[in-house]
């Protein structure tokens, strides 16, 4: 029986969120980490885990470094929880879609108020 990558991704998203919340202890993670998406390759060998976290760019960079350092631990925990014969290699990526959405919202509010909107490339 073949396990669908979408099902594994859904299960991984739930379990990784729980692992990050309850099992991972790293002083570099100073804020809550939210798992926004998980994408698994068709052969289940690799998983991209998209996360967001609040805070300044420096604290997010430290948090991402902590997550990359903990990837092996998370993978081992997933193996215990999911019962897969082979657990996908895990890579954490920062999900910038929320940042982009917030920037668009700010620009729309400026336009609504009649303020001048600067092009990011010229700033």
Automatic annotation (TrEMBL):
Keywords: Cytoplasm, Ribosome biogenesis. PROSITE patterns: RBFA. GO terms for molecular function: ribosomal small subunit binding. One of several proteins that assist in the late maturation steps of the functional core of the 30S ribosomal subunit. Associates with free 30S ribosomal subunits (but not with 30S subunits that are part of 70S ribosomes or polysomes). Required for efficient processing of 16S rRNA. May interact with the 5'-terminal helix region of 16S rRNA. Belongs to the RbfA family. Monomer. Binds 30S ribosomal subunits, but not 50S ribosomal subunits or 70S ribosomes. This is Ribosome-binding factor A. The gene is rbfA.
